[in-house]
Amino acid sequence: MALYKLQSDHSLEEIKATAFSSNQILEQDLQKLILHKPEILGEDLLIFSEEYCEWNESRKRIDLLALDRAGNLVVIEIKRDHGFHMDLQAIRYAAMLSQMSYEDAVATYQAFLQKTALERDARDEINKFITGFNEEITEFAKDIRIILVSNEFSKEITAVSLWLRSKNIDIKCVKLEHYYDKNTSSTYIDSDVIIPLKEAEDYLISTQKKEDTQQDFIRSVNSQKDYTKYEFKGQEYGKGRLVLEVMKDYIQQHPHLSLIELQQLFPSSLQSSLDVIVDLDSATEINNKGYKRYFNQEDDLIHLGSGEIGLVCSQWGIGNIDNFIDKVHDLYKSEVITIRNKSKSGLNLTKG
């Protein structure tokens, strides 16, 4: 990033970034800067300990220890000009903090306030800072977050940070850059959150919501065992076989239909994510991924009048079978499917 100074003649003078060491700014100086102005890290934080080292059998020290507005512990690790191994240090610290309780945090903060000669009540400060906090019912430090601060981050650290975020570990990288204006002897520090980027974070949140919705659907189907039997033209079937036999019957009555026309009549929205019927190559590719999604025995293959071979989806449960039944009744112009034996799980299945 470039920093420019606007001159009186409306020209721009570039002020180049330099290393903190060039102006004798130490890591301890950056630590003090963040301690007194934590919002430089891009969020509201309550720093309640500096050089925290209350460990058993260890002399490791956390540069700064903080709380965020949600009541999560935040490990802040600072390196001046490079961040070698700071990710591993921070992960170790986070693990060592996993047993810290609310009362531990209050005691740590009170000691910190006394050390800095600030006459404030630690418990009251924490309770006011955490949004909607009630120490009797609100879970404290549900998550432990990590903030890495440095002038530069290696590819290794950014790769580790992105991977940890993909595993739902909340790690943040804040780049601090130093600028010195020799004409005025002024020092400037620019703060930039490089991980996560705002756009990437919004995308990941959206993707995670979609994945959560899909997993909720899968769990809802798998957690409710349903052995309901359905009757179609005098024979009883389970859900998957019901769909297969109905498709065979409908195609037998309409031999002129092509695969594309069948897919339009029985769209993937009926199943929720998979096509109801696909060609042989597509089904084979999907089944070969390790999960059988389509009936592929010789007797189950459907030979269409167009010469194509169709395979029917086998993945049907209480969350999508009613969609298919409704569509069949609409196409057949009558209720050709009836429930014979309801599941012993007591599910309320009322389709005709």
From TrEMBL:
InterPro entries referenced in this protein's UniProt entry, alphabetically: NucS_C, tRNA_endonuc-like_dom_sf
Domain Endonuclease NucS C-terminal per the UniProt entry, residue ranges: 27-106
Top-level taxon of the source organism: Bacteria
Pfam families registered for this protein in UniProt: NucS_C
GO molecular function list: endonuclease activity
Entry keywords, A to Z: Endonuclease, Hydrolase, Nuclease
Keyword Nucleotide-binding among record annotations: no
Keyword Nuclease included in the entry's annotation: yes
Annotated protein name in UniProt: Endonuclease NucS
Annotated source species: Ignatzschineria rhizosphaerae
